[in-house]
């Protein structure tokens, strides 16, 4: 959500204070807002509300025009808001209250992801120019694709092209066989779906059908028994 | 070659009208049957969840949709269309049913089922709030109409339904043209309406929203520095 920079000055104090050495005893609490811990909770007037209106998330283009300092401030504003929303979500669940407008968390998450993307773009530009490599990503993307469980190890396997020993060759053969079978299964499923659509909607746009199922030959489906439905033109 | 699972997709207009982020809609729709514990390495990180949804009159992120999708029902075949031609606020003529020939305004579109709900037409009556003593109140509810053969856009020149095609004007703008007369049918203003606002200019800014002036302020000066280097120099931490 588009959040204000109104508390940026207090944020600067917060950030700067955190860099003081640990043995210092002069950390002043007066510069913080009163009821520091209450920042973890929403505005009291939203307690028990059924809806809390909020604006949309930041887009990548809007973030690209901001300076690095502004992006840093925005990150902490978003982070505080996210902590507040997660606290409210947890407490509402514990107390069996409705948590109003849970989409706010997703809006914040989208904004933060895009912010990281913009920072990575800027770092990447410097790295490509000065060093000649791509900038390292701070957080490794761990995504598991259930339809392709061996994705993580496929790259190292494919890199080993010089090795021709029996075990590697057999493994490569078996992986390809598995993929071929999955592909055929998907194709048969699509053919069946396309045939059923032709059965129920004989006057439909064939190009639209072809666009929806690119791996199916729609022209040949006309001759398949399944596409014959009982319509006025083909029943007595 | 990577294969993708055929997941049910939410249409664009549903997400646009709702003003909700896509990740929230996915999260709200999720029905997980079983999920492997991620901290135990002996289990592959699988999630058994519902993948095929039956789209109804209720929007996919609502509780009513969830209740309607708890049990498995027969598959619905939806005709694939190349382009969508109906918008909220369009004047359409109903071609079937007891309101055949009447013209109304589109109040809701459900693109996943090729449906359009016309205000006040194709209605049926039902009773709600019925208890043992009280008969309940009768309310009017509109039934959806199929976009392909039950509804037609009205040509502004002669107020009759026509078949419509998307064509380009001389300026390069994509418009809807009536096949019978060749008149352009403009897209209504309420097409860009959402739950939060009727027009973008009329959106009331909330307390935590960034003001439009602050948002469009250009503060970035490109320099040959990384993000971290720029911050360190700013805070004088070298």
Automatic annotation (TrEMBL), chain A:
This is Large ribosomal subunit protein uL29m. Keywords: Mitochondrion, Ribonucleoprotein, Ribosomal protein. It holds the Pfam family MRP-L47. Its main location: mitochondrion. It is found in: Mitochondrion. One of its GO terms (molecular function) is structural constituent of ribosome. GO terms for biological process: mitochondrial translation. GO terms for cellular component: mitochondrial large ribosomal subunit. It comes from the Eukaryota. PANTHER family: LARGE RIBOSOMAL SUBUNIT PROTEIN UL29M, RIBOSOMAL PROTEIN L47, MITOCHONDRIAL-RELATED. Belongs to the universal ribosomal protein uL29 family.
TrEMBL record, chain B:
It holds the Pfam family KOW. SMART domains: KOW (SM00739). InterPro entries: KOW, Rib_uL2_dom2, Ribosomal_uL24, Ribosomal_uL24_C, Ribosomal_uL24_CS, Ribosomal_uL24_KOW, Translation_prot_SH3-like_sf. This is Large ribosomal subunit protein uL24m. It comes from the Eukaryota. SUPFAM superfamilies: Translation proteins SH3-like domain. Residues 85-112 form the KOW domain. Keywords: Ribonucleoprotein, Ribosomal protein. Belongs to the universal ribosomal protein uL24 family. The lineage of its organism: Eukaryota, Metazoa, Ecdysozoa, Arthropoda, Crustacea. CDD domains: KOW_RPL26. PROSITE patterns: RIBOSOMAL_L24. HAMAP family: Ribosomal_uL24_B (MF_01326_B).
């Amino acid at each position: 959500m588009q959040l204000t920079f109104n508390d940026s000055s207090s944020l600067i104090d917060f950030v700067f204070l955190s860099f003081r050495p640990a043995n210092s005893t002069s950390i002043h609490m007066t510069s913080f807002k009163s009821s520091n811990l209450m920042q973890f909770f929403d505005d009291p007037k939203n307690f028990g509300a059924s809806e809390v209106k909020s604006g949309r998330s930041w887009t990548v283009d809007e973030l690209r025009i901001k300076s690095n300092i502004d992006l840093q401030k925005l990150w902490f504003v978003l982070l505080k808001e996210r902590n507040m929303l997660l606290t409210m979500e947890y407490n509402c669940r514990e107390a069996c209250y409705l948590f109003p407008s849970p989409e706010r968390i997703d809006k914040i998450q989208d904004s933060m992801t895009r912010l990281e993307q913009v920072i990575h773009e800027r770092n990447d530009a410097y790295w490509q120019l000065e060093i000649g490599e791509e900038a390292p990503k701070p957080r490794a993307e761990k995504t598991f694709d259930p339809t392709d469980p061996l994705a993580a190890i496929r790259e190292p396997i494919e890199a080993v092209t010089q090795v021709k020993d029996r075990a590697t060759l057999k493994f490569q053969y078996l992986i390809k066989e598995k993929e071929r079978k999955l592909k055929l299964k998907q194709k048969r499923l699509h053919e069946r779906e396309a045939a059923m659509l032709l059965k129920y909607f004989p006057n439909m746009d064939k190009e639209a059908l072809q666009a929806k199922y690119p791996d199916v030959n729609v022209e040949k489906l006309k001759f398949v028994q399944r596409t014959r439905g009982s319509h006025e033109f083909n029943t007595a | 070659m990577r294969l993708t699972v055929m997941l049910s997709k939410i249409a664009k207009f549903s997400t646009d009208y709702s003003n909700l982020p896509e990740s929230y809609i996915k999260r709200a729709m999720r029905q997980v049957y079983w999920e492997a514990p991620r901290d135990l390495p002996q289990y592959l990180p699988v999630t058994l969840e519902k993948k095929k949804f039956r789209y109804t009159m209720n929007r996919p992120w609502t509780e009513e949709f969830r209740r309607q999708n708890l049990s498995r029902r027969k598959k619905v075949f939806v005709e694939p269309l190349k382009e969508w031609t109906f918008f909220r606020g369009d004047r359409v003529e109903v071609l079937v049913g007891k309101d055949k020939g009447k013209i109304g305004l589109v109040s809701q579109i459900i693109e996943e089922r090729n449906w359009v709900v016309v205000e006040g037409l194709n209605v049926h009556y039902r009773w709600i709030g019925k208890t043992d003593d009280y008969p309940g109140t009768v309310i009017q509810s509109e039934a959806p109409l199929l976009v392909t053969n039950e509804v037609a856009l009205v040509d502004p020149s002669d107020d009759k339904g026509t078949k419509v095609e998307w064509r380009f004007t001389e300026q390069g703008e994509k418009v809807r043209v009536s096949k019978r007369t060749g008149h352009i049918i403009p897209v209504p203003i309420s097409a860009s309406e959402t739950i939060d606002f009727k027009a973008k200019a009329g959106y009331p800014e909330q307390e935590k929203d960034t003001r439009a002036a602050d948002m469009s302020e250009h503060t970035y000066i490109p320099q040959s520095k990384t993000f971290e280097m720029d911050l360190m120099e700013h805070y004088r931490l070298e």
